[in-house]
Amino acid sequence: MSDIDFQSIFDSDEDGLLDTPEKAPKVTSSDRLERSFLEIVEFYREHDRAPRSDTREIAERKLGARLDGILANDEKIAALAHLDEFGLLAEPEAPASLDDLLDGDDLGLLDDGTGILDTSDLPQRKSPETTVDAAQRVRAENFELFESLFEQKHAELVDGTTKLVSFPGIQYITEGSFFVLNGVMLFIAEVGETEYKESTVRANRRERLRVIFENGTESSMYRQSLGIRMGEGHGQAVVPAAFESILADDVATGYVYILRSLSDDPQISAITDLHKIGFSRGPVEDRIAHAEKQPTYLMAPVEIVASYRTYNMKTSALENLLHRVFAEVRLDVSQVGKDGRRYEPSEWYVVPLEVIDQAVSLIASGDIVDFVYDPSTRKLNGRQG
């Protein structure tokens, strides 16, 4: 057997067929972490938002869960900082105030359309009696116009015409009402126009107030903010002596609810302040679950904008009384149902929500008999004579 000249064979291998293949570099845990984060970055680049871990979209949910895990680990955040071109790992700035917190509630978790933030019926925690919202108050303009109102209310408390009761709920925060918060009386001078803040889930409704305090200051907090403060700060309402507060042994009999139509029918969507006033013995959410299939809801989805829990009374009686108060502004409309029959929904009224709130308060106090709704001014006015 002749000797084989291996060297000449290697030298003649111009195409490198005999070269020893290079080993692929070992993938480290750091590499895997960076690659997984870059997928999140690419998602942001494509959708202009971070992936969410609570979506039904499986691919996005996996990325969202991955991002949640990274944000919970300071070491991972530090290791990925050089790849974070969109600030996904930046720690969010803490809200400067409760109003800022509510303004930043994009998912509507703090929205109080159904009274979930009304904590007046919950056990209250003892806390230092400090003046709430003092930093946001300013000197009240034309305070001399309000001084006599505070003096009158104090006099009524002394002679028994009015009394203090535990804060009965956010629906009682209406224009002209008085409350006591941490020992300071306040007056709701104005309730602003309803604003709808668009979010990824729904349009959250809110109203900014002009709140006058008897110490000569005022605040422009939102209605939800005052409701939260009243619940947390042992707040009280100044009400007529006949007002019946809710007691622990009272019997809940149902709900009176106010709905807003989400119909895309131009004849419906063009009507400002169109509300349905109805009642339910069970949760309102269950009642409206299939609204788009029912003529009574105008064959369209609806949004709950207010809900009032009733106690020790026939809920339908309160509903019927509200219908009588606003009878002149009932919507005259008919619709054809899925079965081909024509229906005439009778519980829709063209009236501002704050006026409905005021009517409920007047019914609770027994003073509704002294008021009548004026469609021209869109206000409840005292009866003449």
What do you see in this structure?
The protein has 11 helices and 17 strands. With 385 residues, the protein is α+β, with helices and mostly antiparallel strands. The chain has 3 domains: 55 residues, no CATH class; 136 residues, no CATH class; 131 residues, no CATH class. The strands form 5 sheets. The chain has a 7-stranded antiparallel β-sheet, with helices on both faces. It has a 4-stranded antiparallel β-sheet with strand order 12-10-11-15. A hairpin with a 4-residue loop joins β16 and β17. α2 packs across α3. The radius of gyration is 31 Å and the shape is flat. The N and C termini lie far apart (134 Å).
Strand arrangement across the biggest beta sheet: 1-8-7-4-3-9-2
Instruction: Kindly report how far apart the N and C termini lie.
Output: 134 Å
**Which series of helices and strands comes N to C?**
HHHHHEHEEEEEEEHEEHEHEHEEEHEE
Topology, number of strands? 17
Per the principal axes of the C-alpha atoms, what is the gross shape?
flat
* CA-atom Rg in angstroms: 31 Å
Low-confidence stretches: 104-135
> Helical amount among residues, as a percent range?
25-40%
Computed structural class: alpha+beta
- How many DSSP helices? 11
Key features of this structure:
four-stranded antiparallel beta sheet; 11 helices; alpha+beta; seven-stranded antiparallel beta sheet; 17 strands
